[in-house]
Amino acid sequence: MSSNNQESPVRNNLIGNGTTIKGEITATGDIRVDGTIIGTMKSTGKVVIGQQGIVEGDIVCNSADISGRVKGTVRVEELTTLKSTSRLEVELYTKQLFIEVGAIFTGKCDMSQKVAETPKK
Fold first, then answer.
1. Contacts of 114 (CB under 8 A, 6+ apart)
2. Which neighbouring-strand residues pair with 76?
3. Tens-digit pLDDT profile for residues 41-84
4. What is the pTM of this model?
């Protein structure tokens, strides 16, 4: 790969099982969480919360695939998928929503087209 290459590859970020991060995470690629996040996650790509993953705070991303636990506010520009093992207590703002049988969703869902413009608390 040439050092003059102007395009950077898509970056994948992993927060592994047994890892806890408190604060704000900002990424220009995909993020997979198998550990615990207490704070805010922002990604221009996809956020995947694995079965062991826990997020307590806000998530802002392009798409989300959730198998673990989330408590907070979730803002997704495109598709949000809730797997059968997911447990959510959230305010969800998304364009599209897919929920598998067995998922537990407690909270509010707003599927308006203007996800990015929803008012913050």
1. none
2. 61, 94
3. 999 999 999 999 999 999 999 999 999 999 999 999 999 999 99
4. 0.84
